[in-house]
Specification:
The protein is an alpha+beta fold. Helices cover 56% and strands 15% of the residues.
């Protein structure tokens, strides 16, 4: 019986790690969406979510949709659960930036942020230099891959108004919550790398589930997606 119990706990732990990874990638999801991605029943998924919620790993939010009916209940990782994916030395970094601000002022914070992301920009630019296209979305996909290699769990997708770059994890979210200059410097880097003026729509540091950056078109949707977008318009 000890062996069976241990195996059960091991299986539960692996499933919950997969749930955490999915929520990190998507920002938030319903139990049904998670069940479909995991390949298990909705009942089993809710059992895992209930356990994770009681342990302070996930929290719920209600999201209204354009469809009729009750608003959908979505799950997302709690800040403490997000911290398990790579936030390190946040307290020390925050105190260091507070010291800089106190003695050198806000301009020094901005200069520090620019210097930090310059290194990220150099590494990502090397990846984008291999892209034989000026299409912003082709470059956005290459940038998403490069950012994922840096720990940002990034994805790129086409939408009706252009494209969207999403970062599902931010290694410095805890620090950027107090020092938005880090997010602002990163946004400027994304704009320079893609060669277009981008707009940051949401950030994890500001309490959103995903860092979302709009990449302007023109981008031509595949026929089925274009027809759906036209119907929505």
């Amino acid at each position: 019986m000890v062996t069976r119990a241990t195996g059960s706990h091991s299986t539960d732990g692996e499933t919950r790690r997969r749930v955490s990874r999915l929520l990190l990638q998507r920002g938030h999801a319903t139990a049904a969406e998670l069940a479909c991605a995991l390949g298990i029943t909705a009942t089993a998924t809710r059992r895992h979510l209930d356990a994770m919620e009681s342990e302070g790993q996930v929290e719920t939010r209600v999201i209204k949709t354009s469809k009729r009916g009750r608003p959908a209940k979505h799950y997302q990782l709690t800040p403490s659960a997000r911290s398990s994916f790579g936030h390190t030395y946040d307290d020390l970094a925050t105190e260091a930036l507070r010291w800089i601000r106190r003695f050198e002022g806000e301009d020094a914070i901005s200069a520090f942020a620019a210097d930090q992301v310059a290194r990220l920009e150099a590494r990502c630019r090397a990846a984008l230099d291999r892209v034989d296209s000026d299409d912003p979305m082709a470059r956005a996909q290459a940038l998403a891959d490069a950012l994922s290699g840096e720990g940002y769990a990034a994805t790129a997708s086409v939408i009706a108004t252009g494209g969207q770059l999403c970062q599902h994890h931010c290694p410095v979210a805890g620090v950027a919550a107090e020092f938005p200059q880090l997010c602002e410097a990163e946004t400027r880097v994304i704009s320079r790398l893609l060669g277009v003026h981008v707009q940051r729509l949401a950030t994890i540091a500001n309490g959103d589930g995903v860092c979302t950056t709009h990449v302007p078109g023109p981008v031509r949707l595949p026929a089925p997606e274009r027809q759906q977008a036209e119907r929505q318009d």
